[in-house]
Amino acid sequence: MNKLKIKTNTDKGKISRYIYGQFAEHLGRCIYEGLYVGEESDIKNVNGMRSDVVNALKELDIPVLRWPGGCFADDYHWRDGIGERDKRPYMVNTNWGGVVENNHFGTHEFFELCDQLGAEPYICGNVGSGSVKEMRDWVEYMTFGGDSPLANERRANGREEPWKLKWFGVGNENWGCGGNMRPEYYSDLYRRYQTFIRNYGDEPIFKIAGGPDKFDYNWSETLMRELTQFMDGMSLHYYTIPGTWENKGDSIDFDERDWYVTMARAMRMEEAVANHAAVMDRYDPQKNVALIVDEWGTWYDVMPGTNPGFLYQQNTIRDVVSAMLTLHIFHKHNDRVLMANIAQMVNVLQAMVLTEGEKMVLTPTYYLFKLMKGHMDGQRLEVEYNSEEYEVEGIKVPKLSASASRRNGEITLSVCNTSCNEPARLDIDLDMTVNAVDAQMLAADNMNDYNDFDEPDKIVPKELECSVNGQNISVTLPPMSAAVLSIK
Ligand code: AHR
User: Fold this and answer.
1) Is the distance from the beta carbon of residue 71 to the nearest atom of ligand 1 less than 6 Å?
2) At a CB cut-off of 8 Å and minimum separation 6, what does 97 contact?
3) Does residue 173 have its Cβ closer than 6 Å to ligand 1?
4) Of all helices (H) and strands (E), which one includes residue 117?
5) Is the pLDDT of residue 291 over 90?
6) What digits encode the pLDDT tens for the residues 51-60?
7) pTM score, two decimals?
8) 81-100 average pLDDT score
9) Which atom of ligand 1 is found nearest the CA of 349?
10) CA nearest 402: which of 421, 383, 424, 420?
11) How far is residue 268's CA from residue 132's CA, in Å, rounded to a whole number?
């Protein structure tokens, strides 16, 4: 029996809705086929964006969408993606499979997609192979409302009003695919590039520096030392990879050992966030600079038979439980983590949606994001609970992980059971009378089950039985499950 107490009158700060952000890169079939099919396609679309995918994603209330990469961002030249589509130059996508990129999806199309989704745009600029002028011109093209050659060019291309753009990344992974730089060199470049990102709109641009990989504390230390007064956010990338970089492991063919290793590696997000936050605290005790985890999620070997450069993988209950562990870590560090963007939204890595021609399937991770919506901009509450722990690779993995928040008088409790075999009986105690509970859960008969085009509903939310008694709720979580309770 596990006891869990929600202290409903506590206030542990806001869980930013941007923690539920998404990422879409010109990689594999994320943009083309997945999101954008073009106006001439037989697949139903609005201004080229496929309607089935957009309608499904709208249900997630996506707060922010990062684009165009990823590694692609530092090889992307925005001028290639404006004007008449047929006249746009081609390029080779050297990062991702060497395929031809026709630039039919560019700046205007990205803002159209954001409009359709109701998501705020987050653009990552090119430091690795682009010039300062190119970056400053892009910002003016997008956001200047007055009379200038660039603003008028935007108008000539069909957009009269400037777009609202708040989030802007100054390069991506500049320690790797974004230029293989040393942190000192990137810091100098960042100072220069960011100077020319002007504020044309009502709201200043929130500048995000290309931060560390996983546990590279020298990178975060250098950026914090050199850039604190010049940046609003610093990014962090950490992926959950159960194997090695060369052999990451299969997304559906895995066993109990792989399950626990995945949970342990997901838990290492705690180590990365806590340690980078500690570095940030030393230089920025006021917490003016946010930690932006703009790439995270599970990363496995590509599905057999698919293009190795396309990073297409399937998605199981393992992804749901490891994602809930990770989201709870972001909740816990809500004093520093303002945004996180799971990689990636469609057809790449831990996707929400998979497509095959005109078919579409929603992944178990999609349903998790749908269930977790109650936490967005909620006030985090203190939760006390006891949980067994397993030790895997020297990392402590809790059997139970829980987080609670309150928004508009409603309490959201999310809780997962990481055990492969044992159910978890939970006695939830609230210091208020429970009037109504809606409890939904994601679980699977087998850890290897997944939603496929022929069987799309293998893992979908199901009602979780609960009994209510005054201030108490009792539930039993099956092994390998994640549940979300909305309590009034
Ligand atoms: O998400 C896939 C890739 O992972 C991104 O392009 C890059 O930033 C990271 O290494």
Assistant:
1) yes
2) 28, 307, 308, 309, 310
3) yes
4) helix 107-117
5) yes
6) 999 999 999 9
7) 0.98
8) 96
9) 1
10) 383
11) 36
